[in-house]
Write a structure and sequence with these properties.
The complex is a heterodimer. Chain A is α/β, with parallel strands linked by helices. Chain A is about 40% helix and about 15% strand. Chain A has 17 helices and eleven strands. Chain A is globular, with a radius of gyration of 22 Å. By secondary structure, chain B is an alpha+beta fold. Chains A and B meet through helix 13, helix 14 and helix 15 of A and helix 2 of B.
Chain lengths: ~425, ~525
């Protein structure tokens, strides 16, 4: 098995991002088909396909759609395009190369869940993709694909783009809803869940870019066709963004269940000459790191990685070779989560800063005996203690790095210098 | 009702209650900061952790509803450890400035640390420093570094005052409460944010550094600032009253009170009070005890009939009105009784939350008493009577808080046209002091110095009990009447056998953070 172009079949064709080009390759045919189907049939098909949320949580998409209450209230469909976890950039490719695929997937999904208003919430820094999407939305509106009586079906749906101001936490679905409502981007308490009370306190479905785009081939090929790829519990293909110490970093589409080492060695051209694999962060910087030995057994599906105590997450694979100091890497990750904590829940607000200061101290040769155990205690007490998962996202790397690479941390504390880079000063990315 | 088990004890709670409400309803301790029963649920302090049987993860009690048969506990080692860590997270960047913090002695962080903490901090790193003494508006100051970002104050301005001045700015441990540009915290309910601040981050400019709370006694009474009649607690010592705070009363004020009501205490203290009785006559001034003056007045008023008029304001208790009206009806034998209505043009206004245009605590009680006695004289009849000379003596039971009587000066000169003016009142007034005719001034007790009943705008009868004595010689109207009748009156009540005087800090057992704390 190798890389497969299923979702991304036409991504290399420049015309694919225009309406005409997209239509040339069968664009909006599935929307026309879907509009002739019963909405429930679409939901059933998505359920049967086994499609799981590609934003990180991996929750079954069709099941999520089924949570909407039938209370006659307006429903909203929100596309989560706030791609902001370090290492994650696969949705960017999709938005840049196939904006109409996303729009088509959203319109089909909106029809399925009976929503007449959809938004794409995109990260503020994604100015390029935002401009491409803006243009695509305008084209679709002009062509009558968005708006009133779409394709003469009687279905009305408006779709707009919303640029966030750039906060990691606005990628959390309730934080995103707060931001879209014009409030400070902070997650909301659950329950109530967005499906019951979301945007403007109305039933709302939040799905990731890749998830919504995948609805198009599901309608085209049916659930069975989609299930030709992947494993039983992790169906379909997935886009993976790979960064770090590989020869060909980038975005690759492979079936779920694909071997991690094959992706690194075959698609990504392996590591730099003379370098050894040290570790991989498999699902974005919040996913617990796995060692080179664990990587040998890892397959890219939700179950295998969960069994290893980590997660597939958004499919952002960060490859770390033996030229890297794990203390430095964790310092960068911890700085990020400290910077991005919204400050709402106390354990996260205070814990992220506390952990960063300890790790920062180690990196600068001021580490103390007991720092590592304290880090583990802090992280343990941040985990699962907050409204959203940012606290976990900050805690899990600390726990996994310190546990799996403890000797490197101990060396740093004892010798006041890095075991890998020696006494060279770590070029801090932050003050 | 739903039956659940809290720490091994079966209890019944209303369906739809949250777990934290169930704890409170059953007087069980539970740590918390951000939860407040009068505000929406924020769920951010993460202290109200509980263990629910069958659920592997700890849950927050404030956002979890009770379910039939639910077994909840917050006494397990797991919960205690979580709360301890929760406290540590709160404390790592908190300044250790209890000795100079105005909230010392009634600080939720201090209290909860004593209850759930008491451990060595594991924080070895430098603290994040935030702003000190931030002027939020005319009445409130923020010490940001003490703030634990519970968001109660922000939610208050969003949900209760609906003025939205406050927000939390910045992120992570750089986050701070602040006001939006050009919009100071300046609404008539602003000091409620001080009350609900669980630490000493928000303090009242009026109270800051004036007293340590443990040097104050407290007692419950009714606010007399308007006809709403909010339940309040006044804090006092031998120097006088220092502050007023609301007491939860679902029938009247909920959890809140207005800032104007908080100022009422200022008119009770000595420097605003008429301290002794005096008679001005024939260019001479004579000072005396209030009881002596009342006795002397009684001899001239008895049987004087319709040459005497009585003017009443809405500041007195039902019992006082009964006493004085009965006296004027049966002993003075006059029906010339008049109601002095201040600010009539705003009398029926309401700000939509608590404050009413009728700035008297007992207008309704006065109206009832006048009606019961058949007194229905109009102000015109009074002024006509003074003009024609048929009314020779005017007896006024005047306002306590003269700031709320913008027509005071005009009324004083209007009434002073009578041959003799007898003024019973609590407030010191330059207009009264300046009178040179035949005038008698008799100091009356303020609302915290007497017991009695007030009837609020809705007809709700609420009783108050004496809290303290500010002006020892002052009399209630009831006592003044008794003296006028020739009875001996002890103006400053002595301690009655078997009745305990208010104990220092006794009221603070009701502090939401010190539910089971003993009386000091």
């Amino acid at each position: 098995m190798a890389e497969i172009k299923y979702l991304s079949e036409h991504y290399s064709k420049p015309e694919f991002k225009t309406l005409d080009g997209y239509k040339k390759h069968g664009g909006y045919e599935q929307l026309a088909r879907a509009l002739k189907m019963e909405p429930q049939k679409i939901i059933d098909e998505v359920k049967a396909s086994g499609l799981r949320g590609r934003g990180g949580a991996g929750f079954a998409t069709g099941v999520k759609w089924g949570f909407l209450p039938n209370n006659g209230e307006p429903r909203y469909l929100l596309c989560n395009a706030d791609e902001s976890e370090p290492g994650t950039f696969k949705d960017r490719l999709m938005m840049e190369r196939a904006p109409h695929q996303l729009i088509e997937g959203m319109l089909i999904s909106a029809f399925a869940i009976k929503s007449k208003k959809a938004y794409i919430y995109i990260r503020g820094e994604y100015m390029g993709p935002a401009a491409i999407l803006e243009k695509a939305i305008a084209e679709a509106k002009a062509a009558g694909l968005i708006g009133k009586n779409i394709l003469g079906s009687g279905f009305d749906c408006d779709l707009d783009l919303y640029l966030g101001a750039g906060a990691y936490i606005c990628g959390e679905e309730t934080g995103m809803i707060s931001s879209l409502e014009g409030l400070k981007g902070q997650p909301k308490l659950k329950p109530p869940f967005p499906a019951v009370q979301g945007y403007l306190r109305k039933p709302t479905i939040v799905n990731n870019v890749e998830t919504l785009a995948a609805v198009v081939p599901i309608i085209r090929d049916g659930a069975a066709g989609y299930r030709k790829y992947g494993t039983e519990k992790s169906a379909g293909t997935k886009l993976f963004s790979i960064s770090g110490n590989v020869n060909k970093p980038g975005t690759y589409e492979v079936p779920l269940g694909y071997k991690l080492m094959d992706l690194i060695n075959i698609e990504c051209g392996g590591l730099k000459p003379g370098r050894k694999l040290k570790a991989v962060v498999p699902g974005g910087s919040s996913a617990p790191v796995i060692t080179a030995e664990e990587c040998e057994k890892a397959t890219l599906d939700y179950e295998c990685l969960a069994q290893m105590g980590t997660m597939l997450g958004s499919g952002a694979i960060i490859v770390i070779d033996d030229s890297n100091c794990m203390v430095d890497v964790l310092s960068t990750i911890s700085h990020f989560y400290h910077h991005e904590s919204c400050g709402q829940c106390t354990p996260c607000r205070e814990g992220t800063g506390w952990m960063e200061r300890i790790i920062h101290g180690i990196v600068h040769g001021h580490g103390n005996e007991g720092d590592l155990d304290l880090l583990i205690k802090i992280a343990d007490n941040m985990k699962g203690r907050t409204i959203c998962a940012l606290s976990d996202a900050a805690a899990l790397p600390v726990l996994s790095f310190v546990t799996k690479f403890r000797s490197e941390f101990e060396y740093f504390i004892r010798e006041k210098k890095s075991q890998v880079r020696g006494g060279q000063i770590y070029a801090q990315l932050h003050h | 009702m739903v039956t659940i088990t809290i720490n091994g004890k079966e209890v019944e709670v209303p369906e739809g209650s949250t777990i934290i409400e169930a704890f409170y309803q059953n007087k069980q301790d539970i740590a918390h900061y951000c939860w407040h029963p009068g505000l929406s649920i924020a769920g951010v302090c993460r202290l109200c952790m509980v263990e629910i049987e069958g659920n592997p993860r700890l849950q927050i009690a404030c956002n979890t509803q009770v379910m039939p048969g639910m077994k909840v506990n917050n006494q397990s080692a797991k919960v205690k450890d979580a709360v301890k860590w929760g406290l540590d997270f709160h404390l790592i960047n908190h300044p250790l400035d209890c000795p100079i913090c105005d909230q010392a002695g009634e600080c939720g962080l201090q209290d909860q640390y004593m209850k759930y903490g008491q451990y060595d901090s594991e924080m070895g790193e430098g603290k994040v420093k935030k702003h000190k003494v931030v002027d939020l508006g005319p009445r409130v100051v923020l010490d940001s570094e003490r703030c634990i970002l519970c968001s109660r104050c922000v939610r208050f301005t969003d949900e209760v005052s609906k003025t939205n001045e406050l927000g939390i700015f910045n992120r992570g441990d750089r986050a701070e409460v602040g006001t939006f540009d050009g919009k100071p915290l300046n609404n008539n309910y602003s000091q409620n944010v001080v009350d609900i601040c669980p630490v000493g981050a928000l303090t009242s400019k009026d109270f800051r550094f004036r007293q340590r709370v443990w040097f104050l006694k407290d007692a419950e009474t009714i606010c007399t600032g308007c006809s709403t009649g909010c339940s309040v607690k006044v804090y006092h010592n031998k120097e006088g009253l220092f502050r007023v705070k609301p007491v939860y009363n679902p029938a009247v004020n909920g959890h809140w009170m207005c800032d104007q009501g908080r100022d009422v205490y200022k008119f009770v203290n000595k420097d605003a009070r008429l301290l002794d009785a005096k008679v001005v006559s024939g260019g001479k001034t004579e000072h005396m005890q209030a009881t002596e003056l009342a006795k002397r007045l009684g001899t001239t008023l008895k049987g004087a009939g319709k040459s005497v008029a009585l003017v009443l304001t809405g500041a007195y208790t039902v019992e006082e009105y009964d006493a004085i009206l009965n006296y004027f009806k049966s002993e003075v034998q006059t029906s010339n009784v008049y109601h002095w209505i201040n600010n009539p043009e705003n009398f029926d206004t309401f700000d939509g939350l608590l404050l009413r245009g009728d700035r008297n605590p007992n207008t309704k009680g006065l109206a009832e008493a006048l009606s019961k006695n058949g007194f229905n004289g109009t102000w015109k009849e009074l002024t006509d009577g003074i003009s024609t000379g048929s009314i020779k003596t005017v007896v006024v039971a005047g306002p306590e808080n003269i700031a709320l009587f913008p027509d005071l000066k005009a009324k004083v000169s209007e009434l002073a046209r009578a041959a003799k003016l007898i003024w019973l009142g609590a407030a010191k007034s330059a207009d009264l002091e300046a009178l040179t005719g035949d005038v008698a001034l008799l100091p009356t007790k303020s609302y915290v110095e007497k017991s009695g009943t007030f009837v609020n705008h809705a007809g709700l009868r609420q009783t108050v009990k004496r809290v303290t004595t500010i002006v020892p010689g002052a009399l209630s109207l009831t006592e003044a009447v008794a003296a006028m009748k020739g009875e001996d009156v002890l103006a400053q009540p002595k301690q009655q056998a078997g009745v305990a005087s208010p104990t220092v800090g006794a009221g603070r057992v009701n502090n939401e953070f010190t539910l089971t704390r003993g009386v000091w």
